[in-house]
Fold each of these.
Amino acid sequence: MRQMEGKVALVTGAGRGIGRASALALARAGAALCVSDIDGAEETARQIIDAGGKAISMTCDVTKAADVSAMVAATVEAFGKLDAAVNNAGIAGSFDQRLHEADDAMFERVLAVNLRGVWRCMKAELAEMLERGGGSIVNIASVAGLIGAPKAAAYTASKHAVVGITKSAALEYAKLGIRVNAVCPAYTDTDMARSAVQGNPLMAQIMERAIPMGRLGQPEEIAEAVVWLCSDASSFVTGHPLVLDGGLAAT
Ligand code: NAD
């Protein structure tokens, strides 16, 4: 189904993982894409174009305001508007240190990418969407944005904050044609989850056992929800943190 026909979307952190899967799914649904990342975005754009879609790629570090402004400006210059934005770029930080042992620099870095990056992207995207009368923003939070995760306080704090920003912005723009939602995946089979397993073979079992379905999510399963939230099919949904977790948060 071409739910995004005629629409223009951007995805941050689209060089691999959930970001790339979301960009490819949005393109399959008919959207023209600006895919950005600090690394790998050209390959995602190439895959979209090879499959017959429209895409440009940008190098964009979401911690840099000038990069973020340039990404939104390039999207509008290439395709004339911005209908949907997926704020996906994120880092894990440390997943193996208790709070009192964790590094301050790691905390700052996780907040800089996961929270301030989303904040900065939303400011640029909302300004553009307001000017043209509407849009849909999807922030990639985490199930760790809704429940605690031991030894991951920085990540958990950043993702709870993303859910908070999502809800506040949804209320601010509800009457102005802009919807703002989040998705909250549990462990998903990407480099981020794989690096948590590296050097800790038990971690894979812990992840799978934590999920009632007994397996990790696939990036494509998260991407399906992203497309739905970006599209008009979800036209009465705003301020919603959509849980995609194989049942984890129900335990
Ligand atoms: P990933 O590590 O495979 O991909 C993350 C992407 O973000 C990479 O391409 C990376 O280059 C990019 N990135 C990192 N720092 C950036 C920066 N400063 N500016 C721009 N891009 C940057 O991880 P993923 O699993 O695909 O994660 C995507 C999102 O999903 C993240 O926000 C993550 O927190 C969230 N998430 C992941 C999982 C999981 O288990 N994989 C679960 C819940 C939420």
Amino acid sequence: MAKEIKTIGILTSGGDAQGMNAAIRAAARTAMNRGVNVKGIMQGFSGLLKNEIVDLSAVSVGNIIHHGGTVLYTARCPEFIDPDPDKAAAAIAKAAEMAKLHGIDGLVVIGGDGSWKGAQKLSKHGINVVGVPGTIDLDIACSDYTIGFDSAVNIALEAVIRLRDTSGSHYRCSVVEVMGRHCGEIALWAGLCGGADAILIPEEPETSNLENILQVIKANRARGKKHNIIVVSEGIGHSQELAKEIEKATGIESRATILGHVQRGGIPTAVDIKHATMMGSLAVDLLLEGKNNRVIAYRDAKYVDYDIDEALAMKRRPSFDIEKVNRLVSTYH
Ligand code: ADP
Ligand code: F6P
């Protein structure tokens, strides 16, 4: 028989992402409306280890839906990934004990696939867990969407648009580095929508071939273009060096701008609030159905759930088509 869930815990883990608060609110309110107690765990898995666990009420999750950041705070919890497997196992066992001490029998983990691995391990200690994809990176194989991506990519796009003005005024080349860790999606979207000359992503290391980039810049200048935008994913990096190399090889004044954490702040877009609300609520539905070791995903325009082990084993499919389209539209001869 499915375990009856009386108290759920909610935590946010890994890098913060716009929309995490909307997911917290949705999960908390869904549980409360079904008569379930709700606890907020501060600073991700670290809050379990440090016993920083608070009662949440309908009021305490009020007025957060449009706020960036996360009211539960977030952290990367090094104890869970201690290189000594015995120490890591002990930390996970202790975290599960702390959860049980607070009566938490179901846990919503809002974070990326790293956080889902922590959740997966907690589930082996008798805590029912459901993961919600929360990361700006759009790097989770099982889901076509991760909460925060749309907000982050629109910030990156706005930066590209602003840089087009200033680099055009000075006849310069702008190299813009965006976040994404090992994933090029933010770069692909910001580059495509920003009309970039070239987009460099870690999934396609050949996109960072200097000769090819110089060829595109020169071709575009030859047809009268007054500025160039090269969008670089952080998984490629070296933007400052690239700007110097472009300047040296072409004589075109070049500047690098690394956008950094600005991409993670501010009001979430409607897309993020909508997905966060649907996914946060669905996570609680699953827990109350007695499900365990599951994750929520958005796949083919539907909200679905997968077993965590199955989800983590999937291979991500980057949007290579977007890159191909950009190659066709960003240069003409
Ligand atoms: P994200 O959740 O955004 O992918 P991280 O990869 O930094 O971010 O993971 C966040 C946290 O999840 C880590 O600091 C750690 O506490 C936990 N975690 C990551 N990988 C594992 C793992 N293999 N086993 C247990 N916990 C993990
Ligand atoms: O996962 C989100 C993310 O912003 C990545 O894009 C980036 O690589 C990383 O987190 C930065 O981490 P930190 O906030 O610890 O510098």
